[in-house]
Structure formats: structure tokens, C-alpha cells
Amino acid sequence: MAHRVLDTRELEGRRKLVAQELGARAIKLNRFDNEPGQSGREHDESASGQEEIYVPVAGSGHLVVDDERVLLEPGVFVLVEPESTRQVHAGPDGLGYVIVGAVVG
Q1: Is the pLDDT confidence value at 1 over 80?
Q2: Taking the model in full, what pTM does it have?
Q3: Where in the chain are the domains?
Q4: Residue 8: CB partners within 8 Å, gap ≥ 6?
């Protein structure tokens, strides 16, 4: 098949495993939909070696990277290195965002 289509509006839950649902073999991509004021899990990707790009697509909030607060709103892209600690916090209108990840090297 030359292409596949996925409508994430049909998927339940906060985390949507987009790349997996589409059958992607090399790309890691997930969508998250946080409720107003909801925070994600603080973590790093040291074990996986994966760097991540955060892409806000709806609402607003912020990302804390190694204790630095970064604004998240549509049009802003944030690259986070594997060793950095990160945690997403949704604003009062909620936050929809996509994470694209790949292993360095």
C-alpha cells in the first residue's frame, strides 16, 4: 500500500500511538490530548537514546525541560535531547501536541 490514513479523532484516551496505528516502521510519532491543567509524566529518554520534537497543535501550555519553562502553542517546535528531563503541562484550554522521536546515531 502506498499510503495509509488515520483519523485520531476516532481513537480513545490521552495518548494516540499514531505511527504504530499506521504501521510505520522507522518513524516514532504519538499524539497527546491533555485536559485543561493536566500534566504529563516527567521523564527522560536516556535509556532509549531518543531525541524528541514537541509540536503543539491545539490549545496551549508549557514544557519544562531541565527546570526551564518553554511555551507550547501551535507554531512552536521544541527539540529535547535524550538526557534532558521533560514534562508537559496543559494550560486552561487544554493542550493537543504531537511528539516525533528518533534514536540519535
Answers
A1: no
A2: 0.90
A3: 30-103
A4: 16, 18, 31
Nearest to 54 by CA among 29, 22, 37, 21: 29
Helix (H, G, I), strand (E, B) or coil at 35: coil
Instruction: Give the domain 30-103 fold.
Output: Jelly Rolls (2.60.120)
C-alpha cell at 37: 491543567
Residues 99 and 54 sit within 8 Å (Cβ to Cβ): yes
- Alpha-carbon distance 22 to 19, whole Å? 5
As a whole-number percent, the residues of the chain with pLDDT over 90 amount to: 79
What is the spatial distance between Cα 14 and Cα 33, in angstroms, rounded to a whole number? 5
**Contact indicator for 93, 35 with CB cutoff of 8 Å:** no
Residue 105 has pLDDT above 80, yes or no: no
Of the pLDDT bands very low, low, confident and very high (cuts 50, 70, 90), residue 26 is: confident
Q: Which one-letter amino acid corresponds to residue 100?
A: V
